[in-house]
Amino acid sequence: MNRSLAASLLAASLLTAGCTNDFAPQGDLLGLRVLALVANPLELAPGQPVTIQPRNYLPPGSTVVEQRWTFCPISAGAVAAYACAVPQCEVDVPASPDGSITTNPTTKLLECLKVINPDLPPGVLPPSVPDQLQTVFRYRVATDDAVSREAVLQIPQWTRRAPSDPNLPPVILGVEIGGQPARVGVPTPPLPVDGLLPVRLLIDPLSVQTYVDAAGVTQTETMTGYFYTTAGTFSAGITTGTDTTTDLEGTGLLPGQTTAEVWVVALDLRGGQAVAGPFTVPIGP
Predict the structure, then answer these.
(1) CB of 29 within 8 A of CB of 57?
(2) Would you place residue 104 in the very low, low, confident or very high pLDDT band (cuts 50, 70, 90)?
(3) Mind listing the pLDDT tens digit for each residue in 124-177?
(4) Do the Cβ atoms of 273 and 169 come closer than 8 Å?
(5) What residue segments make up the domains of the chain, in order of their start?
(6) What pLDDT, on the 0 to 100 scale, is given for residue 23?
(7) Are 58 and 143 in contact (CB under 8 A)?
(8) Which of 112, 170, 186, 220 is geometrically suited to a Cys-Cys bond with 89, CB 3.0 to 4.6 A?
(9) With contact defined as beta carbons under 8 Å apart, do 56 and 170 qualify?
């Protein structure tokens, strides 16, 4: 996958997740949000199943009433908003109670080919099918307050052989808040009102891979951090690199806010995603 396609995919995944206020900073959690779609594996050998876990932010008092997945074995690409290239091949994939799915895209590809050509013998892969396809998963979540969000994720499907060097997700070594290691369930140093609290993301440099893009050029992954908060705002909601820091600003706080919840998402811009949080940040004087 080339860099421009990877960037388009990332943008599609995040933009379709949506915000409750188009003018709010990207990192401000003002309502239901799809933070990430975490897939394992990120590239599929023939016959290999995949599991995808959504990571959502759910506002207090909201209840999820629907989680729906669809799968298409052949994406029409970014210019078509990742629509299914063969609409009749887009199928529903049942979700587990936690919203995750596990499915075998190879089986669904063969079923799609049978739809396109009913005379094709079962289980036969025509020579015209490329060695690699970009499959697309589409996720929709809705809550009882009539709010819904969607996100999409493309996953490369190898049709005749296993990938020689498959994409692996970023590895988050840790998150530091206020200079201390952040742990879920353990309060961090406080965010001063009208002050700053540094948030540092550490990604394992060994998880940065090189790959050959569609033009045959060797590229190095660009590790990117996305920062989210339920109170205050980040000075930079997006960072690039394996060791980056941004400030959580204690501004724009609402009356009665005593804590903020912070999430951090690491992406490799090729579909790999890792999530850390939520971290509880007290709001100080």
Answers:
(1) yes
(2) very high
(3) 899 999 999 999 999 999 999 999 999 999 999 999 999 999 999 999 999 999
(4) yes
(5) 31-158, 172-282
(6) 60
(7) yes
(8) 112
(9) no
Q: Residue type for 123, please?
A: G
pLDDT for 124 equals 86
The residue to which tokens 């990430």 are assigned: 36
Q: How far apart are CA 232 and CA 249, in angstroms?
A: 6
Helix residue ranges, H only, the chain: 3-17, 105-116
CA 211-39-128 angle, 5° bins: 60
Q: How far is CA 89 from CA 68, 70, 74, 108, in A?
A: 16, 10, 8, 8
Residues 6+ apart with CB under 8 A from 45: 158, 161, 162, 163
pLDDT at 2 over 50: no
For residue 185, what are the contacts with CB-CB under 8 A and spacing of at least 6? Answer: 280
Superfamily of domain 31-158: Immunoglobulins (2.60.40.10)
179 token code pair: 């200079």
Dihedral sign, CA of 205, 6, 233, 264?
negative
The answer, yes or no, to whether residue 219 has pLDDT greater than 70, is yes
Give me the amino acid identity at 199: V
Token code pair at residue 53: 């876990």
Which token pair is 46?
């023939």
Give percent above pLDDT 70 in the chain.
Answer: 92
Q: Letter for the amino acid at 262?
A: V
3-state secondary structure of 138: strand
